Please model this.
Amino acid sequence: MKRISPVLLSVLALAGAAAGFLLDHAMTTAGRATFTPSILLSIFLVLLALAVLALAWPIRRSTRSAGRPPVNPFRALRIAMLARASSLVGAVITGFGIGLIAYLLSRPITPPIGSIIATAVAALVLTIAAVIAESFCLLPGNGPHDPDGLTGPRLEDDDDDHSRTAADPGH
Model:
């Protein structure tokens, strides 16, 4: 399993921006009010970012400290997947908010956009926190065959990517 790709996050943010821009355009041409997310969405996104970091921190302590008991690999994988999903959602919502802002700023009369900016910033915070939390779930080194960490970190379940036989223990 590899780290989340910045290119994927950028593509999702661009897709979200297009969706936000087109949604506001469609609502305006239909004679409806533009879409404005609630401020509670921003609060929820920041709380989610804090929760993801809080869940990933014990994994980091366990993998980086010598005296700590080992962490359950399934728990580490679940938290890594939560972090990955949170980064994807954060990227889409960041782009969506930017798309809403872009559409509203293209209008002759600019409505209040405070909650939209707060949502975009909170989603960006979620994306960054989730990428950091995913890195917390990385093991130092490249597994048991590289205990010194010379080839870089790997995710907890990275053994699936290596084809080893019973005769090759990976030393």
